[in-house]
Amino acid sequence: MSLLMQANLQRSAGFRTFLSCHKHSTAAVALTAATAAAAATADSAHPLLHHRNNENLGRLSCKIVSPLVFAHVRAAYPGMPVSEQNCHPFQFSRYLWMHNGVIGGFMKIRRALLSTLADAAYDTVSSFHSDSAISFSVFLNHLPDLESQQSPQVLLQAMEATIASITKCQQEAGITEVSLLNFVVSDGHNMIATRYVSHDGESPASLYYAEGSAFQREPQGGGARPDSATPSAASNAASARNTAVTGEGQYSLKYGEVGTRVAIVSSEPITGSSDWVSVPHNTALIISQGKNGYVSILKSPLASSGKHPRQEEVMRCLEAVTSAAEVEGQALALNRHKRRRIAQSHGSLVELEEFSCTGASALGAGADDGSAALATSEEHLLTGHSGAVVCLALYEDHLLFSGSTDCTIKVWDTGQCKCVHTLRGHKQPVQRIAICGARLYSTAGRNIRVWDVATFECLQVIKTQQDCGALLAMTAAPDGTVYVGGQDMRVQAFRCSTNDSSPAPTLSQDAPPSHQTQPHPHHTKPPHGSSSDWVSRTAALTASMPRPPPCNPDPINDAPSLPTNIFTSDTALQNGTDRQDAAAPLPDARAASPAEGGALIGSSAMADSHCGVVVALALCGAYVCSAGGDAMIKVWKADSLEFVRVLRGHRGSVLSLCSLGGLLLSGGRDNIIRVWDMDALVCRRTLAGHRDDVMCIAGLGLEPPPGAMADPSQPRDTGCSQFGEGALSSAALFASSSADGSVRVWSARCWSCLALLTCQGPDHPLPFLTTLMSTKFAVTGSSDKLVRLWSIEEVYKQAAEAAWGVHDTPHLTPADSAQSSHTAAVAEDGQEVSQGTPLLCQGLTVPSKRLCTHSMNGRTSATAGGSGGGGGGGLSARLEKELERTLREFVRMKTVSSDPSLREECFRGAKYLAHLLESLGAEIKISRPVEDKNPVVIARLGRDKNKRTVTFYGHYDVQPAMEREWTTDPFEMNAIDGYFYGRGTSDNKGPILAFIYAVKEMLEEGQGPDGSLPVNVAFVFEGEEENAYQDKGDVTGSVGFKDALLGNQHWLEGTQLVVISNTQWVGETMPCLTYGMRGMIALSIEVKGPERDIHSGNDGGVFNEPLSDLTKLLASLVDSRNNIMVPGFYSGVRPNTLGAALQRLDKCHEFSLEGYREALGIPKLASAANMREVLKARWCEPTLSVVDVRIGDEDGSGDSAYRFGPTRFSVIPRSAVGNVSIRFVPDQNADLLIAALRAHVSHEFNKLRSSNTVSVRVKSVGDWWEADPESKLFRLAERALAREWNVQPLFVREGGTMPVASTLEKMLAAPALLVPFGQASDNCHLANERLQRINLIKGKNVIKHLLNEVATV
Predict the structure, then answer these.
(1) 689, 837 in Cβ contact below 8 A?
(2) What pLDDT digit, counting tens, does each position of 106-134 carry?
């Protein structure tokens, strides 16, 4: 990553710029601002400077490749000489030095300072008149070696000794002048910056720092972002010399990952954002390069004597943080294959390239023993964010909230996998979200927002102090207390006083618009009181996310208020200074400055605060635990923020915390999860397995499954803490997400990894920044802007049965499990280490087919069987999951009937359906009356003459998928935003599988009086429907289908209703019933001329050209107003066939003229003034369309190669063919229309007086079809749809043609019923074909209701 270091320097005659580059640097450091500044980033492989930044720096970047730059802007008067002597930085060996300030009485103590120097240090003095130069030499004098690389501990000690030496000399000389010692030193790996004032009560020189993932120019005027900008004139060395300084812009820090990659230190904030944190006075800031390119920032107090009580703690933290760089981060070793993925960007679908995982070896530490666990790819993708997804929260298992660096929070309906709302208002990237009770809390920048989860209304905005920096950690208590931590390294508590009955307070300027306060249609009141309340309330949210209290009490009105005088706070907060006084009681809660309705009621004492940024918080009973960049976990009393104890053990930053009953889980940059006993406050266990940073940990309680004995000692819900005091943590799962591209699901019973969820990027593993779990799925968020849902129902079910003792297997203790399932080790501090080999622990009796890691080809769920039971799914949920998996497998079969090379794939698809039907107990027959055509699958369930018989028709063949517009693999089903993308999902594989699974569900439910079906069922699935008009078909549709029916009529004997789902809705939201379709005539008009192709240059103009004649004939068919010019073409059209449809369409807004026009992608509709005219033209009037024009004979024998070479513009073809499609309506006759067209073509051709010949050839004919909307069967279908969708369906016609409907009606003497599943936007026959998941599930249920209705007629 290029260091995008832009200070937005104000260019004027009074300012000059000096830069110095260091060849030894490996961590980029830059200083800039009015006096001095510094920045650090950890990527040394790319140039530091970039031409898109300040133009002076841009010029340097043309010649300089260095990750370390010190830049200094010094106030100067015109004519003042600028030299190394009066402009910093100073350099010696690997060190660069700057000083912004003054040494009091410097000239009086200069000789004393020089006398302290050894010879080697004395030789480094570059100026005997500069306090900066001599102080640099004093610093070098305290180093053990001037040439070797030193640790940050040594650099800090040298800096402390430097300040102590200066202070000692001043004291000996009786100097009373104030010293302002803002030193900065860097060796390329580490940087130390100090803010020091020698006298109490005096103001120090200012010093600020900021951190993020990048430092970039803001886009101007909606233009391209910096990473896509056009190079400026100064982008090369040759043009840089005389180019004017132009193109200055605004710059800000960007956030995209968990961790800091860019750190900037400056005497003043150099951006207008709230990214900057004031460094406390008499404090040293230590910035060092860490693991994987991350930057660590720690603070250390300074004392004039060089010794401070907290220095020992800081040194221990530095040792732990620097040792993390030795921990190697590795990607999960997985085989990969390339796939295409669909994603959404600003409302449009775009293509993303990604690599999926296939197989796994050495899945974790100790995995070489061959054991494996469930490894799977994501089941569903949610798109819509334009930034990294960094935090997640779940409400009652059905509302998912995702926070992103795009400054928004999206609300997803997990049932439909759709975004139902977007919460806007934050102006900074959303860092944390948490749910407690009916409130959603979010942090972004230095603001806290409180939202109502029912109405999505923002109830409060709480603003912290201006210079405290971003809030990076948060957790909430049921009484409305919110604990936050961030860049200022303290833990603070705020009281949220929102009240449901009171209006929302006046919000700040970034308050959401008023239209966002409306409740969404899927959720108006928080559900409670159901049998799954316990499970819903214990669903883990994020590492610091609490549970709602029992029975969902009002967290504001019902919870007892905390006394306002029990919290402690720095007295410095009261008087606005940085004094590091001990904690003192707050007499009253006071409003934060500035604040919108919230109150700061407590803050951790500065003397006990973290040495690094706070990135994780968790409530653990009576404690609040915090962790961050200093490798420490600090434990505080929740009611007073009184410091209790520090927990050590991690190497490097601690990134995540999770409360699990009486335990605390922590994960960090050392790739380790530690388990802490919060009663004894000791580490009990260490879990290994991840190969890179543990980014997030989330827990989930296990509900007692059926058959479990009620036991008061078992887990119970006690409030916002994860499981409550006294709960058995063994009845829990937890998930850990990692930068190694995996999520591991662990059992708290045996401390083994039960499942492995993986996702691999093209060049490196895709880090999962956040995760959470529910009873049905795990959710992850990542830097590719996607939310992923992974099915874990089976894992949950088996873990719950084992934890609650449903099986007779003995309960394993953690130690027993560790010894039986993997090698147990002992860490240095004595706690047990469990290697995270993914396997199902003893007591989890999962079938062996679920235990092995198997091939993952994109989005295939690894669970082979259904889920349910303990997962809260039941029969219906289990079969729905099975239906989705079956559809994935079915879509993978390339059953393209028009491609002879895929004939075997089509036959495989037919056999696949036959096996599915056979598994229901049906009689099966595969009929293939035409040898070179695909077979027809016929099946029968039941031959009870006392029951009615329903026949289902469908086709398993699909259209080709050669369009370039496909953004996913068309033959690999992709679940995205509630839709299944893939060829055949809507037309027609999804609907025919819904038929099958509706029958399967009824069989398992035993709905008939004897446990059988209430009706007899027959199935007819053909494989040439999509190829019907590519062949010489007849009125029956596809070739061979009629022969297959005639030869097997006894299979369909007694049919009283034919059900077909091969049409679409008129819109997107209202279910429909189709009662009419147009017929179709496919024909060609061919004009033949000379016997061979003719050269246009040699012989053009001396004869009638076939293509010219054909063009004139085709132009004579339709006039400019879309009127068909064929005499008699409109004869026989039945009037008033639209009435049944208009009765309900007129009352709804399902069809929009403007929306229809936009969907077609045309600027204007032809002569249609209103909806009635458009629908009449689409459904009830005949049309004639020229669909193709080809060169050469129709049989292909005359195709010329000239079309593909440079001669294509100089050859006249000998023949030309125009293909014409006629759609006709009731009560027109196809034969009469064909005769009328032949007569018209002959008449118009004779008018041309051409020597060529013309012919009209009919390729296929399909009759129109119509049903009676007032019939009993139509009305029972209406009831079935209304029962499932809770709305009266629309009655619609279609402009398309399905000759098989009328064919089946005539052959079986039974009415056909067309029940569409798909929406108008499903793109059947087009690229990106899709079917909405809820339509597939509800379609299956509609079929169940329909069969029950038929049985009662």
Answers:
(1) yes
(2) 999 999 999 999 999 999 998 898 899 99
Two structure tokens written together for 801 = 């049965």
Q: Is the pLDDT of residue 219 over 90?
A: no
pLDDT of residue 80: 53
In the block, tokens 């039971």 appear at 869
Contact 454, 523 (CB under 8 A): yes
Rounded Cα–Cα distance for residues 261 and 259 (Å): 7
Q: What is the pTM of this model?
A: 0.78
Alpha helices in 1116-1264 (DSSP H): 1139-1145, 1153-1160, 1171-1175, 1230-1248
- Please tell me whether the peptide bond between 553 and the residue prior to it is cis, using omega within 30 degrees of 0: no
HSE, CB side, 13 Å, CA atoms: give it for residue 369: 13
402 contacts 395 by C-beta, under 8 angstroms: no
Query: In the beta sheet, which residues pair with residue 980?
Result: 975, 1331
- Which one, of 1301, 1254, 594, 1343, lies nearest residue 990 by Cα? 1343
Nearest to 1045 by CA among 913, 933, 929: 929
Provide the sign of the torsion angle of the four alpha carbons 223, 225, 228, 232, taken in this order.
positive
Q: Which residue has the tokens 């996702």?
A: 759
The token pair at 106 is 């410097």
Q: Rounded to whole angstroms, how far apart are CA atoms 557 and 860?
A: 47
Two tokens at 1272?
């009993």
Asked if 8 and 248 touch (Cβ cutoff 8 Å), the reply is yes
Mean pLDDT estimate for the chain: 76
Nearest to 51 by CA among 197, 234, 222: 234
CA distances (Å), origin 993, targets 487, 886, 1015? 54, 8, 19
Q: Which of 1274, 1309, 709, 413 is nearest to 949 (CA)?
A: 1309
| Confidence class for position 534, pLDDT limits 50, 70, 90 | very low
Query: Residue 1170, exposed/middle/buried by CB under 10 A (0-12, 13-18, 19+)?
Result: exposed
Tokens of 142: 């305290």
For residue 556, the cross-strand partners are none
State the distance between the two ends of the chain, measured CA to CA, in whole angstroms: 71
pLDDT tens track for 297-324: 999 999 877 677 888 889 999 998 888 7
Q: Write down the pLDDT at residue 1168.
A: 65
Tokens of 621: 């009973």
Burial of 1288 (0-12, 13-18, 19+ CB in 10 A): middle
Check whether 1048 has a pLDDT greater than 50. yes
What tokens does 452 get?
């109502």
Catalytic residues: 957, 1025
Residue with more model confidence, 565 or 734: 734
Cα torsion 1299, 1301, 1304, 1308: sign = negative
Which of 695, 647, 673, 676 has its CA nearest to residue 543? 695
What gap in Å lies between CA 905 and CA 926, rounded to an integer? Answer: 15
Burial of 1278 (0-12, 13-18, 19+ CB in 10 A): middle
Residues 6+ apart with CB under 8 A from 263: 39, 40, 41, 209, 210, 211, 287, 295, 297
Residue 1228 near residue 1087 (C-beta atoms within 8 A): no
Residue 1255, CB half-sphere, CA atoms under 13 Å: how many? 10
